[in-house]
């Protein structure tokens, strides 16, 4: 009952605009309408590609969070909405397990009426992100199959860092072969990579949904003083002691929570419900 009353107070009946042209609303709209009680609209006229493209033709100017904020502000200016949701994805080596590719997603909700924002970040190894240079059709077949083509789209262009000619959104075998042959005949090779745009990549869409679910969980964490939503971690204090040598590790030993509505701060120790860390995560015991 308390949860329902708080969410109704802050979000009930309001219109939330999703700043996306890549169909992310397919997974985000049901979440937001079910849990927050909002009406979702789509800012289809907003050209989000101007903030950067995953295929590289337009370089992203700023961090993923900064880019998500720009999308929200642009959608608000375009539609007049005071509640805007945007997401931004990044792909590359996993920050900890460097040999694995990873998908980092940020989902941001900006409430311009109440001057607050709520954000969630998720790093997932569930991605088909990959690419390479090809000279013959047979290796292309192997690559495409391994990249879950044709349920997941592909991109073909001249070179890894050459964006002067590019074919995007390829989801048919005939078109893939035609595009590959075109570049090979012209340049002797073709660079082929996964198309990471959400509407052409079901694996990424799943990660966006999981990040949206995480955002809902953050919003539903209410301040113990004022009941404001989004009582979230503002600082991580690392240094949980190793169980074997007692040296500090990189594992969190406390979280500092902050309410952006009333400014209340609260420290929670041992957030992972353990008071010592396994030696395998200790730089002294396992350098």
Describe the model.
This protein is an alpha+beta fold and 287 residues long. The protein folds into 3 domains: 2-126 and 203-220, Maf protein; 131-195; 234-281, no CATH class. It contains 6 helices and 12 strands. It has helices at 2-10, 25-36, 64-79, 137-146, 173-187, 202-219; strands at residues 15-18, 39-42, 83-93, 101-111, 116-124, 131-134, 154-159, 162-170, 190-194, 232-238, 252-258, 265-269. The strands form 3 sheets. A 5-stranded mixed sheet has the order 2-1-3-4-5, sandwiched between helices. Strands 6-9-7-8 form a 4-stranded antiparallel sheet, covered by helices on one side. The longest helix is centred in the last third of the chain and has 18 residues, at 202-219. It starts with a helix and ends in an 18-residue tail after the last strand.
In short:
The protein is an alpha+beta fold.
CATH class of the largest domain: Alpha Beta
How far apart the termini lie comes to 50 Å
What is the number of E strands? 12
Rg over alpha carbons: 22 Å
* Average pLDDT rating: 93
Descriptive key words:
4-stranded antiparallel β-sheet, 5-stranded mixed β-sheet, alpha+beta, 6 helices, 12 strands, Maf protein, 29% strand, 287 residues
Layout: helices, strands, pairs:
Elements: H1 2-10, E1 15-18, H2 25-36, E2 39-42, H3 64-79, E3 83-93, E4 101-111, E5 116-124, E6 131-134, H4 137-146, E7 154-159, E8 162-170, H5 173-187, E9 190-194, H6 202-219, E10 232-238, E11 252-258, E12 265-269
Parallel strand pairs: 1-2, 1-3
Antiparallel strand pairs: 3-4, 4-5, 6-9, 7-8, 7-9, 10-11, 11-12
Helix pairs in contact: 2-6
């Amino acid at each position: 009952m308390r949860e329902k009353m708080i969410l109704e107070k802050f979000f009930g009946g309001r219109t939330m605009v999703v700043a996306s042209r890549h169909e992310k609303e397919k997974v985000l709209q049901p979440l937001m309408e079910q849990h927050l009680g909002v009406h979702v609209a789509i800012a289809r006229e907003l050209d989000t590609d101007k903030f950067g493209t995953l295929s590289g033709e337009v370089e992203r100017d700023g961090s993923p969070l900064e880019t998500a904020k720009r999308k929200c502000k642009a959608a608000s200016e375009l539609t007049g909405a005071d509640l805007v949701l945007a997401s931004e994805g990044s792909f590359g080596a996993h920050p900890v397990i460097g040999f694995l590719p990873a998908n980092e997603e940020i989902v941001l909700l900006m409430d311009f009426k109440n001057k607050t924002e709520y954000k969630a970040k998720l790093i997932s190894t569930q991605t088909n992100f990959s690419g390479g240079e090809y000279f013959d059709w047979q290796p292309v077949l192997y690559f495409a199959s391994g990249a879950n083509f044709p349920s997941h789209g592909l991109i073909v262009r001249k070179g890894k860092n050459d964006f002067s000619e590019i074919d995007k959104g390829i989801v048919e075998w005939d078109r893939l072969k035609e595009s590959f042959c075109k570049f090979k005949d012209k340049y002797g090779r073709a660079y082929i990579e996964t198309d990471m745009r959400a509407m052409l990549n079901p694996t990424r869409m799943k990660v966006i949904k999981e990040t949206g679910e995480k955002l809902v969980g953050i919003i539903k964490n209410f301040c113990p003083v004022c009941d404001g939503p989004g009582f979230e971690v503002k600082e991580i204090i690392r240094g949980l002691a190793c169980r074997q040598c007692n040296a500090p590790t990189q594992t969190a030993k406390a979280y500092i929570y902050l309410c952006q509505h009333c400014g209340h701060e609260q420290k929670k120790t041992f957030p992972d419900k353990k008071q010592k860390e396994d030696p395998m995560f200790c730089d002294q015991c396992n350098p």
